[in-house]
Amino acid sequence: MKKTILVVELILIALFSASCQKHRRIEPVKAQPQYDRPLPPGQLALRKITNPADIPDFTFACYDLSNLKTAVANSLNYMKKPSSNQYYPYGDITHAKAVDSLKAFEDLLNSKMSAAQMNETIRQKFDVYISVGCDDRGTVLFTGYYTPIFDGSLTKTDRFKYPLYKQPSDLVKGSKGEILGRKTASGVEPYPTRQQLESSSSLAGTELIWLGDPFEVYIAHVQGSAKIRLPDGTLTGVGYTASNGQEYKSVSKAMLDQGKLNGQQMSLSGMIAYFKQHPGEVSGYTQMNPRFVFFQIEKGEPRGSINEEVTPYRSIATDKTIFPPACVAFLSTKLPFEKDGSISQRPYTGFALDQDTGGAIRAAGRCDIYIGQGDKAGTLAGRTYEEGRLYYLFLK
Q1: Model confidence pLDDT, tens digit, residues 203-260
Q2: Which of 25, 265, 292, 372 is buried most deeply by CB count within 10 Å?
Q3: Are 318 and 370 in contact (CB under 8 A)?
Q4: How far apart are CA 89 and CA 278, in angstroms?
Q5: pLDDT band, very low/low/confident/very high, at 17 (cuts 50, 70, 90)
């Protein structure tokens, strides 16, 4: 969520061997793509498609337009705010063109066209841009994030003794909300790391809410938001308000590298199960990630970095330093789906709105899809790890 990071980073490494009569040959391992490869100076993350043959077919996605009107309305509401102007112009895309594109897409949703008619209309009225991806050929890694639901308390108890913290008063932000560091008598210095904060009492008095498990606290940090079920049964939302400005580092990769979990076990549920059995190891791993998140109470549904509610499968998180916020996007990848208790990967195409960001979502080769709330959404989000293509639509 403002914030959000991915549920888990999966590192897939495969060795293929072949045998012959006299010797055994090991094929070289294909290098892992650098999905977070920075853009060259001056290059935009989006490139206009000029060959009509390269424009994707939108027909199948037009059969299911559920929740899209809500997501578009949220983006239009954000674009009314003066703060949205700071991200435009984006190349040749002005703020006014971005707004007009959202309104035109909203009109399409209200038109009652057939899927085929809508596909043709989009191709006639909109320019299609593609993310250059991690390799300048459009390769984007899609992952998923979600809103967990945990038991907790507004006061510390014997059961609930692991806090989420409010933004401290000494944290300094820039004009665009970027984290500058910690205010000191001599100026502003980098804010302490997770390990430094958790090993000191510097945050005492800023506790917001208390959870019953230290790894649940970490999951809330990674996802950027959570729903907390209080002792009386009511649900309270908490959401990202700031971080310590430190770069995100993967705990799951460290566990995989050290053999704590293998590739088949490497999922959020696998990590939760491991730390249930080894609670003494939680801080040793989570403190490998220096990034630390601060929270605030949130009413309503979870909100993205544009401070509008996110919609399952219709809200995505990208790097807002290189992508224009709130705009209409189109995804082409594979996603996990659950049916009759089993989960399988299926091809997926669908429209979404760029409404969020995440600490681990950096560069043109990354995109995080909001899956929803609760355990089922968490399971699906944890299994979302697939390459694909990311497109944006703007009026001609």
Answers
A1: 999 999 999 999 999 999 998 999 999 999 999 999 999 999 999 998 988 888 898 8
A2: 292
A3: no
A4: 51
A5: very low
Tell me the CA distances in angstroms from 1 to 74, 90, 199, 378, one per residue in order. Answer: 15, 23, 26, 14
Range of the domain at 189: 147-298
The phi, psi pair for 75, rounded to 5°, reads: -65, -40
pLDDT at 146 over 90: yes
CATH number of the structural domain spanning residue 340:
2.40.40.10
pLDDT higher than threshold 90 for residue 94: yes
pLDDT tens for each residue of 274-290: 999 999 999 999 999 99
Q: Is residue 26 included in any domain, yes or no?
A: no
100 and 233 housed in the same domain: no
The total of structural domains in the chain comes to 2
pTM for the model stands at: 0.85
The sign of the dihedral angle between the CA atoms of 109, 111, 113, 117 is: negative
The vertex-354 CA angle with 349 and 358, nearest 5°, equals 110
Structure tokens at 60: 């199948």
Q: Are residues 169 and 277 in the same domain?
A: yes
Whole-angstrom Cα distance, residue 99 to residue 82? 13
Say which CATH number the domain at 220 has.
Answer: 2.40.240.50
Lowest-pLDDT choice from 15-24, 53-62, 279-288, 316-325:
15-24
Q: Quick one: 87 and 221 in the same domain? A: no
Contacts of 325 (CB under 8 A, 6+ apart): 78, 84, 87, 305, 306, 354, 355
